[in-house]
Write a structure and sequence with these properties.
Structural class: alpha/beta
CATH topology of the largest domain: Na+/H+ antiporter like fold
CATH architecture of the largest domain: Up-down Bundle
Strand content: 5-15%
Distance between the termini: 62 Å
Number of strands: 10
Largest sheet: 10 strands, mixed
CATH class of the largest domain: Mainly Alpha
Number of helices: 30
Number of domains: 3
Shape: globular
Helix content: 55-70%
Length: 746
């Protein structure tokens, strides 16, 4: 009755007001004056009018900008993924993506596409949006700096960092002297040209360097702490120098720039002495996510924007203001982390790639069309490497580092990446760099960043001291070694409960290694030890409950699945346990289409397709990351599907075919080491007297059907990976009623 009532009310309201709308429009036409503009017929067909309207919409500035953003993100992610897989920072791939979309590739080979997607009229919009992204990024860079670390370890670090600035700066100035006549823009003084080349040679990309240090497992070493401190000191010094160089270039002379430099000094002092105490007070009062309200967030964003605005009108660029605003943020790292999370995703994923592509649109490698120009480019790379690498290494050796550590510092400090592009774009905008020199310097930034990884590998090879992330266990009496790998601290508890059933009760013979591998983007380089402690808290708490000794292993990584595989294969483990991942491409038709597309553009999947390891259009039984681990692991692998596991008192092993016989080895481990009641669901009569698995806690069920009530009684189900795939293919109904699952690949 209620439904009829609602429907009747709906029809009455819609009918009455529709009639009123019709009457108003009809009578409103009578009010029109004769001079009202009428729509003039174009003489074209309706379809042609539609096409004209569609063309107008496509070429609208907003539509072009949105198409640019979508294209840029997709291409940047693609090249970033390729670089990630070959062990290079993703920033290199993003820079290459920018060059590919620019005149160097698409502009030359697909000019129609380039003109359509990146018309000259749209570049200003792209430029300003990318500048906003850079402002947010520099704010994050400033927040990631820890001035306390600089104060504690400043002495040696300052010597190394300043040597790594003054030496390449001087060499850059000498280089400018040698190429000024042929390559400096008309009307640009030597001082401006030389200073910009010098600062471009001496910059270090702190964010990229910090990620490399984490990925190499150097963060807890003396050399890791030293090089991060050096890079931080280098960052602060270089940005102050850059501000001075910009002031000189804009003022035209050193004397004229003194006014700008004095204003800049007053600005920095005001930010440190006046604004910073105020922000620290807010940080102490609002130190939790629940307390950070929109007005509080607005205060910090206004501080960022006003700081950027002031430095822009002073004449030292808005990016310097954003960097200073980040540095003076409250010292509370928890507070900083919350703000970084608010900004970083949008900044890094959406806005920053726009800057790379905008740089790529400016980079015309085709201008380097003669051997002489490439010789100059090679000379620029040589000067940059010699100045930064050799300068840093010699300074480190002078302050007492051994040759291995000195060369490592030199290789890391030679990393330029994104920060170099920032400097180059500022120089280009100021008219200090020609298109040819700009292209050469971009190539130099790529080359010096790319060579960091191979240089570190070569140093490790020469000194035969490469640090491995693989844990070493010298004990020969261990009965069974299990590696538990997790990405969520809470997931580690459940995996430990499962692993506990396979490990000897004898503490001398047990071995469980809990490994937590985190993305480098999530870890602050200064707080990595604190982050590690917090990550292992739930696992270690569970280990105490189970009376188990657990070895912990932590690593920051850009390629998590590859590191899991490396540790599992080289660590001589008997079993590796991981959580099953969830695929974003499952569940909808569009998701399946996108899933196939992602496999096509993924270089690793393509390689596996050509080598026969996997089929391009096969059913996705697991997400891409889990499937990658399955394909590469050479030891038994357990994929755990959690359904709120509380205890493991009842465990069932499912034998669906004769190939599942290997699961009986796990039954033997369970009956020996676990107190659980074990049920073997045997559909092929695999269990017999020869198997020797009879035990008071072991029950064999010969049946071809799993009852729903039986499943409800179980805490954990164990089955083979082939059986799991079979159940997925047949869309078995009982999959919805299962408890927690352990899927084992032998």
């Amino acid at each position: 009755m209620k439904n009829y009532k609602n429907s009747f009310f709906y029809l009455i309201v819609v009918g009455i007001f529709s009639a009123l709308i019709y009457w108003t429009i009809k009578n409103g036409k009578l009010l029109e004056k004769p001079d009202v503009l009428k729509v003039v017929a174009t003489g074209n067909s309706d379809y042609q009018d539609f096409l004209d309207s569609l063309h107008h919409n496509i070429t609208h500035p907003l539509a072009i900008l949105l198409a640019q953003i979508v294209t840029i993100i997709l291409v940047a992610r693609f090249f970033g993924l390729i670089c990630k897989k070959i062990g290079q920072p993703t920033v290199i791939g993003e820079i290459i993506a920018g060059i590919v979309l620019g005149p160097s590739f698409f502009g030359s080979y697909l000019p129609e596409f380039s003109v359509l997607l990146f018309p000259d009229s749209s570049l200003d919009n792209l430029k300003f949006l990318s500048q906003i992204g850079l402002i947010f990024f520099m704010f994050v860079v400033g927040m990631e700096l820890d001035l306390k670390v600089l104060r504690n370890k400043a002495k040696e670090a300052v010597i190394i960092s300043h040597a790594s600035i003054i030496i390449p700066f001087t060499l850059g100035l000498v280089l400018a002297y040698s190429i000024y006549t042929n390559f400096a823009p008309k009307g640009i003084e030597f001082l401006s040209f030389g200073l910009f080349l010098g600062i471009a040679m001496s910059i270090t990309a702190f964010p990229v360097l910090a990620r490399i240090v984490q990925e190499r497992g150097l963060q807890k070493t003396r050399i890791g702490a030293m090089v991060i401190t050096c890079a931080a000191a280098d960052d602060i010094t270089a940005w102050c120098l850059l501000a001075g160089v910009i002031a000189i270039v804009k003022a035209g002379s050193v004397v004229s720039s003194l006014y700008i430099i004095v204003l800049s000094f007053v600005y920095v002092v005001a930010m440190i002495k006046l604004v910073r105490p105020f922000l620290r007070r807010i940080g102490n009062l609002y130190d939790t996510a629940e307390k950070i309200t929109k007005p509080v967030v607005a205060i910090f964003f206004l501080t960022l924007l006003i700081s950027s605005y002031l430095t822009e009108i002073i004449g030292i660029h808005a990016l310097f203001g954003a960097f200073v605003a980040g540095v003076i943020m409250p010292d509370n790292m928890k507070f900083r982390k919350m703000f970084i999370e608010k900004i970083e995703d949008v900044s890094l994923v959406v806005l920053l790639p726009l800057f790379f592509v905008f740089t790529g649109l400016r980079t015309e490698i085709g201008l380097l069309n003669s051997p002489e120009l490439w010789k100059v480019c090679g000379l620029i790379i040589l000067v940059a490497v010699v100045g930064k690498f050799i300068g840093s290494a010699l300074a480190a050796k002078f302050v007492g580092q051994n040759w291995r550590d000195s060369l490592t510092i030199g290789a890391l400090m030679n990393t330029r990446g994104l920060m170099e592009l920032v400097v180059l774009n500022i120089g280009y905008d100021l008219g200090v760099l020609t298109k040819e020199v700009f292209a050469m310097m971009v190539i130099m930034a790529l080359a010096t960043t790319f060579m960091t990884g191979p240089a570190l590998n070569l140093i490790d090879f020469i000194f035969k001291r490469r640090k491995s992330i693989v844990p070493s266990t010298s004990a020969d009496n261990l009965e069974y070694k299990v590696l538990v790998s997790f990405e969520n601290p809470e997931d580690g508890k459940h995996l430990l409960k499962v692993a506990n059933n396979f490990i000897s009760i004898d503490k001398e013979k047990q071995s469980i290694t809990a490994m937590y591998i985190s993305s480098t983007n999530e870890v602050n380089p200064y707080k990595i030890e604190e982050y590690e402690r917090e990550s292992f808290k739930p696992v270690l708490k569970e280990a105490n409950k189970l009376n188990r000794k657990v070895e912990t292993l932590f690593k920051a990584s850009r390629d998590i699945d590859s590191d899991i595989v490396e540790v599992g294969n080289k660590g001589e483990f008997d079993l590796v346990l991981i959580n099953i991942g969830s695929s974003i491409f499952e569940g909808t038709l569009l998701g399946k289409v996108l899933g196939i597309t992602s496999k096509i553009i993924n270089p690793e999947n393509l390689l596996n397709t050509f080598t026969g390891k996997e089929k391009l259009f096969e059913i996705n039984y697991f997400d891409d990351k889990t499937q990658a681990i399955i394909n590469k692991t050479e030891v038994p692998l357990g994929i755990y599907v959690d359904k709120n596991l509380i205890k493991t008192e009842n465990i069932s092993v499912i034998l669906f075919n004769k190939e599942d016989q290997f699961l009986l080895d796990y039954v033997k481990l369970l009956k020996k080491n676990s107190q659980a009641k074990i049920s073997i669901f045997d559909t092929y009569d695999i269990v017999n007297e020869d198997n020797k698995i009879t035990h008071e806690n072991v029950k064999v069920i010969h049946s071809s059907k799993l009852e729903k009530d039986f499943l409800k009684e179980q805490d954990l189900l164990i089955m083979s990976i082939d059986s799991w795939k079979k159940l997925i293919d047949t869309r078995s109904v009982w999959l919805n009623n299962t408890p927690s699952l352990l899927i084992i690949k032998p």
